[in-house]
Structure formats: structure tokens, C-alpha cells
Amino acid sequence: MVITMQAVVEVPMFDSGSSPWPTEQLAPGSWLVLNADCTDKRTGLFVAALANRIDVAPPGGRNEVVDALLAEEMLIVAGGLQVGDTTAGTNVVPGCCSGLEDWRDWAQALTGGSPWLGHDPSPELEVLGEDLRVWQDAGPNRHRGRWAGRHVDIPRRALPQLLLRAQRDLVGFLDALDGWAARSGLGHRGSALVKAVDQNFAIAAPLVLPAG
């Protein structure tokens, strides 16, 4: 059994009109995995997802979109941590309204708590001895409906390393974002955007994990 934990962002349904930079064409509702291997088009898709909820004044070009992002008091994006069992071929993804900005809340599971992982479906942690069973949908829906039976079991002792690897992936993605910004000619805006993403999604700050 190989358990994975990856930072992901949900691809939104974009409004009419194209992004002011090239983006990977992924289906709305699919999941964009964030790590150091993200291409420029995948990185551009992440930034487009960030900007999707923001009104940008005309003409809405590259600089205007980034300026609008930098003017936001808080950056948020649908997503979180996706867990998987590669042996079983099973993934549990964040639920609706879960945000990447809350990825550190998974550490609560080390002391018997449970992070809020979204709804519709409503992922849920169940403690089974020394394992954490992560259900794709909660309550009676664990065993009925579209997500019936879908779960991933995580040994509690493995969670700290999984979280640290997820953080390393996010730090690697910051490097990808920095490279994308430089190649896009964003200049000082690019540096400011990388800093804003780092701060708003609590990426590079030390990950202090409670003793389980």
C-alpha cells in the first residue's frame, strides 16, 4: 500500500473569454496537482483559477489581472489536499467549498481532531485504531450513492511525513510560479505575486506538527 497526499486546485468553469496567458486545457471540476513539475501552462491555469472570482477592469490584460490579484485582501482558491492509495487506485478529493488555504488543518488529525474538508460530497475522517480512514462522503452516504465505499486508509504515524511532502510540493510549485512569472515578463509584479501566494496559502513557513 502506497499512500499519497497532494496539494490540488479545482479547475473552475471559466467565464467567456480567454485568459491573458496560455493555460492547460483541463475540464472544469478536474483537479490540478501543484508541484515543482508544473509546466508554464499548468502554472498559468492556477493563476487563472485564482483570478476567476475577481472582477478585473478593462482591458483585463496580463498586468491588470495580476494587479487585481495583488490588490485582494485575501487570496483563496477551491482545493486542498487529495489523498490516494496507489495500490487500490483510489483517491479522495476535497469537497465543495474546501480551500487550498486551509491545507494545514490536516494536522488536527494528529491529536484526534478532524479538519473540515468541504461538502457535497463531504469528506470525513474516521479514526480506526492507529489508522485514519478518509471517506469521500460522510455519514450514511459512506455506503450509498455515487461515492459509496470510497475511502483511503492512512496510518496515523505516516501523516506527518505525508504533510511534509505536500509542503515540499507546494514550495516546489512556488519555484515553478516564479519561473512562469519571469518568462511571462511580469517583472516586479511576478515577485509580488509569488510572495502573495506564499503568504496567503501558508506555504513556506515552518510546518509545526503536534505530537500525536
How is this structure best described in words?
With 212 residues, this protein is α+β, with helices and mostly antiparallel strands. 28% of the residues lie in helices and 17% in strands. The protein has four helices and seven strands. It has helices at 40-51, 62-71, 159-183, 188-200; strands spanning 3-10, 31-33, 79-85, 90-92, 124-128, 131-135, 151-155. It has a four-stranded antiparallel β-sheet, with helices on one face. Strand 3 (79-85) and strand 4 form a beta hairpin. Helix 2 (62-71) packs parallel to helix 4 (188-200) and helix 3 packs antiparallel against helix 4 (188-200). It starts with a strand and ends in a 12-residue tail after the last helix. The mean pLDDT is 95.
Order of helices and strands: EEHHEEEEEHH
Outline: globular
Query: Mean of the pLDDT scores?
Result: 95
Task: Give the helix proportion (percent range).
Answer: 25-40%
Distance between the termini: 22 Å
Concise structural overview:
With 212 residues, the protein is an alpha+beta fold.
